Amino acid sequence: MHWLSTKKAKIGLLAPTLAVYTLFIIVPVIVAVYYSFTEYSGLGKATFTGLENYFRMFQDRLFLIALKNTFLVLCASVVFLMVGSFLIALIMNVDFKGNGLFKMVLFAPYVIAPIIIGIIWGYILNPNYGLLNSFLRAVGLDALAIEWIGGTTWTPLALAIVFTWQVLGFHSTIFLSGLRTIPRDLYEAASIDGASGIQKVFRITLPMLKETIMINVVLVITGVFKIYELVVQLTGGGPAHQSELLTSYMYFTVFQSRRYGYGMAIAVAVLVCSVLGSFVYIQITARKRREGK
Amino acid sequence: MEGKKFSIKKTAFYLLAAGLLFLALIPILWSVLLSFKTNSEIVNAPLSLPDSLSFDNYQRALDTINFPRMYANTLILVVVSVFFSICLTFMSSFAIARLTYKSDRVADILYLYLLIGVAIPVYVLLFPIYRIDSLMGILGTRLGLILPYIAVNISFNTLIFVGFLREFPSELEEAAIIDGCGLIQLCTRVVIPVMKPTFVTIVIFNAVYVFNEYPFASTFIQDTSMNTISLMTSMFKGQYSMDYSGIIAASLLIMVPELIFYVLMQRDIISGMTDGAVKG
Predict the structure, then answer these.
(1) What is the pLDDT of residue A55?
(2) What was the ipTM of the complex prediction?
(3) Are B183 and B48 in the same domain?
(4) Average pLDDT, chain B
């Protein structure tokens, strides 16, 4: 295509994207990293403090709580979503009446604004008048009617449950497209050899889905680092910042307590976690593309 | 599992599927139920049905929220930012995938540079863009939101566009050039018509993101007359935090148009969003 590859064409096609992207993605990251080495209150000049903000993070009890909460949400979500979406995908893969409706309903939460999801689930998880506890009490399981939100212990679990509801259909659909790539003859051959249904799942389906499983895990990881609205709506990070995640704690540090330098150090920490996750993701998809060719 | 023969396996399967469907729908069904109850019914008799079927809560929500304005505010952002992010990234992706450079590595380096954004959580960008917007004098304006929305979508769009354009048959392209097509005609007459499904994927991905976006909107918008859907929902909840039934009625009202759109477009949305995530 060298006929059209003039310098003018190249600049005209590339410049607008590069300008917007550089100014609003790359420069901000550099700015964030810069501020993370400073102390800055919004007035006057930022004072350079080197790595102090990063050392401070590990002595900051609230940061460690946010880190722990994020980790707990991550672990619970990976378990719920991997098991749940795989089973749902197996159902979606069966040709039955109502399959379309099933898929549509399960995927729907993925397109609802997270802020609305947070509000709705607040009415389910509220320890006093929420559906979950009211139901548990009505059937005599008072012991299970715990402080899902608003307490200091169970919020990460509650967040993982809501997040699971939100993205379950999405991850199931990814599994489903993986399932469709497995050749039918494999199952037929296994049937002839007398394999049971469960044996087929463990011997054929799961090994064949290795790559899909990896993609799903990575998407869950990066997804968890984006949870923010749910925290805002369900607990606001409270009580006393006991239920913050890294994202919401960073937001609080920057925009409410106006410790910009420290907030940016937390932001950079979030960035590093997410980049590590995405790096694995890109590696997998890049390999997949090469194999595809 | 053939014919009309009764089969335990089949029945069990349908029960399981129906059970899961019901579980997934509970939050929505519960909200609909709550939206007809009064505040004291919600708090004092959580599991009871509403005493009377009244639309008071919806009326209150409709009276308080300026729906046309909120939708207009959101749709302006969606239409403008999606339009520009698609135009810009189509152009740049075309240049990366189809034009030749002195060194082969130039295109690869540009491509990788534009992909970095995939790995960057928007929360990192909030404060820096806040500063950049205020330096440019566009903080709190629509432009101040549209530009970051365009930027945030660039990486994803590049991933999808370049992936497709690299596989575009060069014979078609060469034939068009020999027939005397220039660059613009080549794109509009030959390349774009073949790429409809790719465009649908990208439009849906970008539009859903901007439509539901909250962190940027809530941080940058200071003038309440510019409130978007997400922002309005959370402001309503903040202002009338004791009006439980009003909040839930408002949330449902805000959600309904989105869900109708989803039901109409479900095939494209589901395949678009999952293909987009997997293809890479």
Answers:
(1) 92
(2) 0.88
(3) no
(4) 87
Number of structural domains chain B divides into: 2
Retrieve residue B138's tokens: 């566009």
Residue B258: φ, ψ to 5°: -65, -45
Strand-pair category, A47-48 with A38-39:
antiparallel
| 8 A C-beta contact, residue A283 and residue B118 | no
Q: Do residues A68 and A58 lie in contact, with contact meaning Cβ atoms separated by under 8 Å?
A: no
Tell whether B262 lies on the interface with A, counting CB pairs under 8 A.
yes
Cβ contact A38:A49 at 8 Å = yes
Q: Do B270 and A254 touch (CB under 8 A)?
A: no
The total number of structural domains in chain A stands at 1
Decide if pLDDT at A150 tops 70: yes
Amino acid A128 reads N
Interface membership of B161 toward A (CB under 8 Å): no
The verdict on B111 and B220 lying in the same domain is yes
Its pTM stands at 0.90
Burial class (CB in 10 A: 0-12, 13-18, 19+), B53: exposed
Round to whole Å and give the CA distance between A21 and A23.
6
| Least confident piece of the model among A9-23, A113-127, A145-159, B136-150 | A145-159
Interface test with A, best of B101, B165, B265, B278 (most A CBs within 10 A): B278
Beta bridge partners of A39: A47
Interatomic CA distance for residues B42 and B106, integer angstroms = 62
Give the structural domain span for A152. Answer: 30-292
Amino acid letter for position B28: I
- Judge: A285–B280 Cβ closer than 8 Å, yes or no: yes
